Amino acid sequence: MKKTLILAACAVMAAGAVFAEPLLGTTWKTEVDEGSYAHIRMAPCDGKICGVIDRTFNAEGEYESPNLGKVLVINMVPQGDGRYEGKVWRPSNDKVYLGRMALVGNTIELKGCVAGGLLCSSQTWTRLN
Predict the structure, then answer these.
(1) Distance CA 88, CA 73 (A)
(2) How many Å apart are CA 106 and CA 125, to the nearest integer?
(3) What distance in Å separates the CA atoms of residue 39 and residue 33, rounded to the nearest whole number?
(4) Residue-wise DSSP of the chain
(5) What tens digit of pLDDT does each residue of 74-90 get?
(6) With a cut of 50, which residues of the chain have pLDDT below it?
(7) Residue 86, Cα to own-chain centre: how many angstroms?
(8) According to the model, what pLDDT value does residue 14 have?
(9) Spatial contact of 42 and 73, defined as CB atoms under 8 Å apart
């Protein structure tokens, strides 16, 4: 019984740490990529952080992309000091990359890398809320 209570307390503390995460519940504007940009909503996913495509825009304004609702930021894990590691999906080429994010004030510096981090592309996203 005592072991069960300890395990339950640990689970509650871990869940509390995830929900205290400063990215959760925030929305971010991406940079333009291949003529479009998106609003990404950060949400919990299996104890990690994921970014879901919430709205999409092109030169004409908001449009209904087939990517709406898809996960762009995948299973990011906090590393401390506003840094995160996980994966990112690039819709324009449908590839998943090793991902790193750094929260800097009202921006996220996002990197997607291949070849063990030798080749990277980056964007700076702006906080909307």
Answers:
(1) 5
(2) 8
(3) 13
(4) -HHHHHHHHHHHHHHHHHHT-TTTT-EEEPPPBTTBEEEEEEEEETTEEEEEEEEEEETTEEE--TTTT-EEEEEEEEEETTEEEEEEEETTTTEEEEEEEEEETTEEEEEEEEGGGTEEEEEEEEE--
(5) 999 999 999 999 999 99
(6) 2-19
(7) 9
(8) 42
(9) yes
> How do 71-80 and 83-90 pair as beta strands?
antiparallel
User: Token digits for 109?
Assistant: 């510096």
Is the distance from CB of 74 to CB of 87 less than 8 angstroms? yes
Count the residues in the chain: 129
With contact defined as beta carbons under 8 Å apart, do 67 and 37 qualify?
no
Calpha distance 127→39 (Å, rounded): 9
Assign residue 20 a region: left if phi > 0, alpha if psi is -120 to 50, beta otherwise? alpha
Contacts of 14 (CB under 8 A, 6+ apart): 47
**Amino acid identity, position 4:** T
Give the predicted TM-score (pTM) of the model: 0.81
